Amino acid sequence: MCCFRPSRLKPPVPDPVSPVPPIPPVPGDPADRIRVKRVYRAARVSDGKRILVDRLWPRGVSKDRARLDRWCKEIAPSDALRRWFHAGPQDWDAFERRYRAELATQPELLRELVALTATDVVTLLFGSKNEERNNATVLAEVLREEIVRERRAG
Questions:
Q1: Residues β-bridged to residue 79
Q2: In the β-sheet with 122-126, what is the strand arrangement from edge to edge?
Q3: Which residues contact 24 (CB under 8 A, 6 or more apart)?
């Protein structure tokens, strides 16, 4: 016979339901709405529009996990520039100059990305291991400069 006394058992603890995180407010200044993040990091509600700005799809990342709103490979560095920088990543200033020159030839794409910042946060996603020196950081700077330029002109 089993000695089972219900009074001695603790009541089951309900599983805590994790609350859905609130959507953070969108910054007032569109220039502050541009963020840069490695695509391998988890997607967050605060990311807003998630845009991959690499020419190649990142290794080991499924489309479901990436949770992209858009893949804008046209605005990524050209294949020749990407290969050149990969061969000699120590020449950051030259890469930045060359990539800015490439971006200057695509004003319609820049305007399109700037327009997204009018209502939401835009997170530029990249696959590089270097989080400080990559094409997305250069693109973010150029977009911020475009926003300031538009503000002065408008």
A1: none
A2: 34-38, 122-126, 49-52, 70-71
A3: 45, 46
Annotated domain spans of the chain? 30-153
Residue type, 143: L
- DSSP assigned state of 16: P
Residue by residue, pLDDT tens for the chain (154 residues) are 444 344 454 555 565 665 666 667 777 787 888 999 999 999 999 999 999 999 999 999 999 999 999 999 999 999 999 999 888 777 899 999 999 999 999 999 999 999 999 889 999 999 999 999 999 999 999 999 999 998 888 7
Distance CA 36, CA 121 (A): 11
Name which of 154, 145, 126, 152 is nearest 31 in CA terms.
Answer: 145
Task: Classify residue 30 by its DSSP letter.
Answer: G
Give 37's strand partners. Answer: 125
Q: Kindly report the CA angle at 152 between 148 and 154, in degrees rounded to 5?
A: 110
Q: Is 126 within 8 Å of 136 (Cβ atoms)?
A: yes
